[in-house]
Amino acid sequence: MLTREDDVDAHALHRRGWTISAIARHLGHDRKTIRAYLNGDRVAGRRRRTEPDPFEPFAVYCRERLAEDPHLWATTLFDELLELGYQRSYPTFTRQLRARGLRPACESCRPAKGRPVSVIEHPPGVETQFDWLELPDPPTHWGWGAKAFLLVGALAHSGRWRGVLAESTDQPHLIDALHRITAALGGLTHTWRFDRMATVCHPASGVVTASFAAVAKHYGVSVAICPPRRGNRKGVVEKANHTAAQRWWRTLADETSTEAAQASLDRWCALRGDTRLRPTGDGKATVVTLAATEPLAGLPAPFPAVLHVDRTVSAQALVSFRGNHYSVPPEFARAQVQVTLRLGATSIDISTAARTVIARHRLAPAGAGATVRDTGHVLALERAALAAFTDAPPHRRKQRIPPGPAARAAAATLRAHPGEPAPDPTPSTTDTTTGTGSNEVVVDLARYAAAAQGRNTLR
């Protein structure tokens, strides 16, 4: 059985023209096994054991003992397992400890700072390093919250790097940024290197996930995962992260849009990043000169991942996406909608929170500032605007409107009895003693008392 890493490597080598025999010798597997995985007859990571795992009953004991004492020697623990009935060899025992990750890491014993490091050779065209950079306090009008994210990719040999802004670090945004960065760098290297991000591998074990293995096979690259707490293993991209944060993000103006920010980063990389001098065997050369010597493979069509972003419809029934605006029916003005894009497609879908598609438009070039409207949406918006139109005069006009008779009568009553509320002259009063009605305005409260006394007498 092939691991996902060997499966990805086999597809990458086959894409570069290696024969099945050569791949089998390189990976240490039978040719029939390699052919089965290349043909899709077998899937990496799917194999059921034909017999019970002999180490499984002892795994809990080992986990608890190593949690109590992370520095317990493996030989000491092996002696204890022998007394408990373990019958396998010591190398099998230690392999199980490593494969299951039973020994917890001790940060005090393995500090990341101050230890000696070695120089890692990076031949041309072999490795591209990727890493997410968290950017705090993005402009408020972006609507991205408290953080923005920048995926940075760097060619390990030449040091050339590019970055793509993203509002999320989920796998569709990662795949989209990977494709755009690879296109900006000029092509594919043999290997993509990542740290232990959950969208690429299982962080605890470093095993490539099934979903990202499909992405790597699509692009024909191998995937390399850095050991835990070894950030300097991908030091090229880590330095690019530091440069992007301090020399570009730190000086970005508040009024800059996302598309303008992306354009400014690309411009900075071309004018400043690519003109840096790097030492070579013959002296020094610029980054762009070294990058031109790297043998990079061609880029296929984007992997068909599905990208989802949430948006708020404007009062003009328009939805903004990547520097353009797309229309929706006018009844969805100021509502929350979701924009869906399948990478590589030429159209986008706009749907409600219940995933009901309400609009589909052709995809305009990113940052073009285009407004894409559907004819039906335009007509519906015009009808809604005309229905709300009225030819009634405004409430405040420049004309003379003096107090009328009712207002003058109320004013006279207020002058005759200051401090008392003016009665409403409109309704008529009824004499409860005689049962006759009159239009006389009752002001004296004694009249109300007499009327109430007569009503009680009648009862």
UniProtKB/TrEMBL annotation:
Record domain Integrase catalytic: where: 120-294
Compositional bias per record (Low complexity), positions renumbered to this chain: 406-416, 427-437
Taxonomic source organism: Pseudonocardia bannensis
Pfam family, one: Mu-transpos_C_2
GO molecular function: nucleic acid binding
GO terms classed as biological process: DNA integration
Stated family: Belongs to the transposase IS21/IS408/IS1162 family.
Chain spans, region Disordered: 391-437
Protein name per the record: IS21 family transposase
